Amino acid sequence: MPEEGLAEAFGVTEAARAKINLALHVTGQRADGYHLLDMLVTFADCGDRLGFLPAQADAFTLSGRFGETLAGDGGTNLVLRARDLLREAVGVLAFPVHIHLEKNLPVASGIGGGSADAAATLRGLMRLWGMSLPVETVAGLALKLGADVPMCFESRPLIARGIGEKIEAVPDLPAFAMVLANPLKGVSTPEVFRRLATKNNPALNLAADLAGTAGWLAAIGAARNDLEPPARELVPEISAISAMLHAEGALLTRMSGSGATCFGIFSNIAAAQQAAAALHDARPDWYFQATETVSGGM
Ligand SMILES: C[C@@](CO)(OP(=O)(O)O)[C@H](O)COP(=O)(O)OP(=O)(O)OC[C@H]1O[C@@H](n2ccc(N)nc2=O)[C@H](O)[C@@H]1O
Ligand SMILES: Nc1ncnc2c1ncn2[C@@H]1O[C@H](COP(=O)(O)OP(=O)(O)O)[C@@H](O)[C@H]1O
């Protein structure tokens, strides 16, 4: 991801990559209400950026297209929650820090911006404060911040089960050229889960020997996002945006997470960029971003 100025000003920088749920099957529900999921997840070469700098007192600043959206959220930003949780775990080593968040991803959009920011804060502050914690300790802190935070901490292709905390790397997943598309209508994740008609859907069953982009595309195409029907009820623009991606030549389109962001997979990055430009011309008030996802081999 391009550094865009943060690198010079802040000694430690971290990328918070957009999370893409290539498939999301809801397979059950726990006694505490959280849903059991089977997810195939990858990460995009675009997202938010964070900078970390030692300071006299803690500070938090925002920039980027969607920075304003989060400006009035007091102490509730996931970046600050991650900072405070990590500080509690490490004690005196945790000197004051100025954190800057360049907010490029739309908020409440199913691509895990807040979760990726929280995960990047854990990574960045461990570097700034010069510490390494046991993997299980970091995983525990991440999960306290949200179900998606452990996988955003990994930021590489993976299958996640449980509520998102049981993670298995997928080293064979290829990179994809994509357009991310969002009508800039925030979606409430709990509301989408509440509207699910069926909680016990068939599990995600991927063949063990999937190979090449065509093989993976066919397997992803046969999978689902079970949250897409209830999200489409809440935000009818999801159907329109999905149709627009198809019309621009996407090989496969699907909604990510609880929406409303949809992704379209294209044959190459030039085709994705061309489609994003055409879509932007049609709806300059919406969000369209061409990107490549990371491959399992990275
Ligand atoms: C749906 C997913 C798929 O990746 O992504 P997003 O749409 O948020 O990007 C995630 O599971 C979202 O994870 P995250 O956004 O971290 O969720 P949390 O803050 O832990 O939970 C928010 C709320 O969503 C519901 N929730 C979340 C995760 C889960 N496995 N079951 C649930 O029922 C619960 O109502 C919970 O109170
Ligand atoms: N750094 C952050 N970025 C985005 N949203 C945040 C952040 N901190 C707190 N939030 C809150 O978390 C909620 C979910 O946001 P987000 O992570 O963008 O959703 P999603 O996982 O659906 O993409 C929003 O309602 C927002 O107000």
Strand content: 25-35%
- Can you tell me the CATH architecture of the largest domain? 2-Layer Sandwich
Query: Helix amount, in percent?
Result: 25-40%
Low-confidence runs: none
Radius of gyration: 19 Å
Structural class: alpha+beta
Backbone shape: globular
The number of helices is 10
Order of helices and strands: HEEEHEHHHEEEHHHHEEHE
The CATH topology label of the largest domain is Ribosomal Protein S5, domain 2
Short account of what is shown:
With 298 residues, the chain is α+β, with helices and mostly antiparallel strands. It contains 10 helices and 10 strands.
Layout of helices and strands:
Elements: H1 6-9, E1 12-29, E2 35-54, E3 59-63, H2 78-90, E4 97-102, H3 113-128, H4 135-145, H5 149-154, E5 158-161, E6 166-169, E7 177-182, H6 189-194, H7 212-222, H8 228-234, H9 237-247, E8 252-255, E9 262-266, H10 269-282, E10 287-292
Parallel strand pairs: 3-4
Antiparallel strand pairs: 1-2, 2-4, 2-5, 5-6, 7-9, 7-10, 8-9
Helix pairs in contact: 2-3
The chain binds 4-diphosphocytidyl-2-C-methyl-D-erythritol 2-phosphate and adenosine-5'-diphosphate.
Residues 21, 24, 34-35, 37, 39, 110, 112, 115, 146-148, 163-164, 189-190, 193, 257-258 line the site of 4-diphosphocytidyl-2-C-methyl-D-erythritol 2-phosphate.
